[in-house]
Prior knowledge:
Radius of gyration of chain A: 18 Å
InterPro entries (chains A, B): Homeodomain-like_sf, HTH_TetR, Tet_transcr_reg_TetR-rel_C_sf, TetR_C
Oligomer: homodimer
Keywords (chains A, B): DNA-binding, Transcription, Transcription regulation
CATH superfamily of chain A: Tetracycline Repressor, domain 2
Helix content of chain A: over 70%
Protein name (chains A, B): TetR family transcriptional regulator C-terminal domain-containing protein
Strand content of chain A: under 5%
Amino acid sequence: MKTLLQRGFNGCGVQDITSAAGVPKGSFYNHFESKEALGAEVIERYWQSSSSRLAILRDASVSPLERLRRCFTSQVEALVEWNYERGCLLGNFAAEMSDHSTVLRARVAAAFAEWTRELEQVIQQAQAAGEIPQGSPPAALATFLINAWEGAVLRARVDKSRVALDAYLSLAFDKVLA
Amino acid sequence: MKTLLQRGFNGCGVQDITSAAGVPKGSFYNHFESKEALGAEVIERYWQSSSSRLAILRDASVSPLERLRRCFTSQVEALVEWNYERGCLLGNFAAEMSDHSTVLRARVAAAFAEWTRELEQVIQQAQAAGEIPQGSPPAALATFLINAWEGAVLRARVDKSRVALDAYLSLAFDKVLA
């Protein structure tokens, strides 16, 4: 996962992956039919490993709007800590593989869809609690915010700067959800 | 440019590029020091070829807000027409190469910066004309909208659907710029 996250799907070979894992290259095909099959598995694991993000969104002891804020703020902090050198595996695979692998595309789409549903629920709760206005459909807000987040992460990596992330936090919460 | 846009920087080799151009592979290095040097040139050309986008943004015969709307609506139409199969070269290179080539990263950053400045000017004009409120700084709005756009394009490619693009148009204009 680390090798794929750092180098991209086409930026590394099976050899790089098995070397990083400290196993012989030949053993790879005992476990995976192809690099694509590993990629699909990695997307699944990456999404499961985002459980801290989901834990924040589901923490009923915190107000819905504050949960939304913490979800993105914690990710900003992580990106800054990594010097903007690790992006989002979903966004990376989306850019690289959407038009080249139906298997990987479907896995990325499923992960984005699940994240969107999670966010949508919290937005619904924030609307019900009167923390944000009722006007916009929660599904559209969730989709927009997740996509805008992915774009902000990409830009922060290009600029090696938090400007894009700060613009995201400020406008997502002061305009989109206000 | 077409080959790099379709396959990504790491998804094609020099051979693929020279084949697509109908020239012998050996001739490549008469023109470019490396594939990276070609990539940098392609980013520059790609950005220059976005002149229709800039022409829309600079068309003083149209109100600033309407120019912003046309700029993104025309890109949505193009993506739908291509069946979401071509993304944005800047976004693709950002995802793939930000951490692996300072040359490519710098070129992508420069193109995004120029696009942001262009958008910022039109947002300033829209604010001055009273078409959008003065509250948010034009530079932050421009950065946010461009990044959110890049994320929406990525998501449309993953979903092979215009849902992300419609959410973008609706929330960018009804919330972020309203």
